[in-house]
Amino acid sequence: MPRSVFTDAYAAFRDTLVAVRKDAGVTQIELAERLGKPQQFVSKYERGDRRVDLIEFVAVCRALRIDPKEAFALVLRRLPKSFDI
């Protein structure tokens, strides 16, 4: 069974985070600074090298000035109809 960061569902989640960041006109470096993290933190979750938990998701959304509920709705729309966990 594939690790969950490499599933189509998790790719949809990562792609949404990248799209939200880019739509906000924010670079990885700027987002990392807003989060108080190194740029590699953002790069690693965007590449799928690390998972993002719910608290981090909310922090990323707030740093991008997007309502976490709106971002989550975007994730839900991008998820495949069915997927393994």
UniProtKB/TrEMBL annotation:
Q: Which domain of life is it from?
A: Bacteria
Cite the InterPro entries for this sequence.
Answer: Cro/C1-type_HTH, Lambda_DNA-bd_dom_sf
GO molecular function terms noted in the UniProt entry:
DNA binding
Residue ranges of every copy of the HTH cro/C1-type domain listed in the record: 17-71
Q: Which Pfam families match?
A: HTH_3
**Protein known as:** HTH cro/C1-type domain-containing protein
Species the sequence originates in = Candidatus Viadribacter manganicus
* High-level lineage: Bacteria, Pseudomonadati, Pseudomonadota, Alphaproteobacteria, Hyphomonadales
